[in-house]
Design a protein that fits this description.
Layout (H helix, E strand, L loop, with lengths): L11 H9 L8 H22 L15 E6 L5 E3 L6 E8 L5 E6 L7 H5 L1 E2 L3 E5 L2 E5 L1 E2 L3 E10 L24 H15 L4 H20 L23
Parallel strand pairs: 4-6, 5-8
Antiparallel strand pairs: 1-9, 2-7, 3-4, 3-9, 6-7
Helix pairs in contact: 1-4, 2-4, 2-5, 4-5
Amino acid sequence: MVFNGDPAEQDAVSDINWWCSTDDVTYPLADKVRNYVFGLARTSSKIMRADRTWKHVSSNATTIPIAVKNIVAGQDNYTLATKHVKILRCRIVGKDGVKKTITARDRKRISDDLLNATGEPQFCDKVGSSLILIPTPDYSATEGLEIEYQPDSAVDIPTVDSTDWEPGFNGDFHRLPNLYAAEDYCTLFAPDRVGMIRTKIKEMEDDLEDYFASRDIDDEASLDVERTSKAASLLV
């Protein structure tokens, strides 16, 4: 379901107006966008709790959720563009030139000897807005650090001018953020509608959680792309 502007009114804005019996005067578009974005984040959060492999990537995204950075000899700390991102997988180019996955591990669980060592990284730890490689690399590698991450849903959101924008999850559940936006409005201005909307929200939340928690392995979210210049700038 697109966000706005569908000629047949099969869009999120029209659906919100339908649930609330409003229009862009009684429920201004800017308010609908704000509440829809909160609803989108709420939906994404529920999906991530049910399926840790899922990535929020909408139909109009221009980047892929993999970032790369040069490994620098003697440098263990690599700054992330945002401290709120969820790391799904970290790979490095080893001394042999082959990419390999390293394990995420809390620094508190790692010995002083390994923290003080240099060599080929075996572990990584996200600390605030930084990714720490352990042990500290004693070699350099161009684009030697690769991070697959969960994009924040707030990075890619509709605006008042959006028309063909769609959420980055199964279309069967595109209505859920609409319902959240309708609930926000009706709680204040049409309380007689809130019970009906919340009943529908509960039904759709249950269906969503069941779907994402029980998908077949062939349906699991995955990323199978070649490296391109569109790799997102997660690292700076």
